[in-house]
């Protein structure tokens, strides 16, 4: 294997997840996948070119999963089925933010980071997203929404 470049393989959307395949799917993971599927339908309905990738970093045996990349607007999309930060072995916003940071290293720059949440974040979580240059989005009356000042629009 080439020690300088990652191996990137495009795969069908919804076939690979950032979750151990040999583990039973938890309630949290099921909710997260449903949120991902809902956002995917929303973006496809707006004519977006969406992709999914498997990435093997150079010199690593790990395989990373980009579950959703919006090639139309260069947006890396990660979903989180809770507004809790996480901790004590639980997935949460911190895990999702780490996933965005890790995966972004292998994507074209500049890439906008999108964090899909189950509901509108409170001002503290919104502030955390802002300092990390992450755009939080959540389900709204017309699909998904974010703060009005975000550009480009969803």
Mean pLDDT: 88
Order of secondary-structure elements: EHEEEHEHEE
Query: How helix-rich are the residues, as a percent range?
Result: 25-40%
Strands ordered across the widest β-sheet = 1-2-3-4-5-6-7
Primary descriptors:
single chain; 154 residues; alpha/beta; 7-stranded mixed β-sheet; 3 helices; 7 strands; 26% helix; 25% strand
Question: How would you describe what is shown here?
Answer:
The protein has helices at 27-45, 93-104, 123-131; strands at 7-11, 50-56, 64-70, 75-79, 112-116, 134-140, 143-145. A hairpin with a 7-residue loop joins strand 2 and strand 3 (64-70). It has 154 residues and is of the alpha/beta class. It is built from three helices and seven strands, in the order βαβββαβαββ. 21% of the residues are buried. The mean pLDDT is 88. Strands 1-2-3-4-5-6-7 form a seven-stranded mixed β-sheet, sandwiched between helices. Helix content is 26%, strand content 25%.
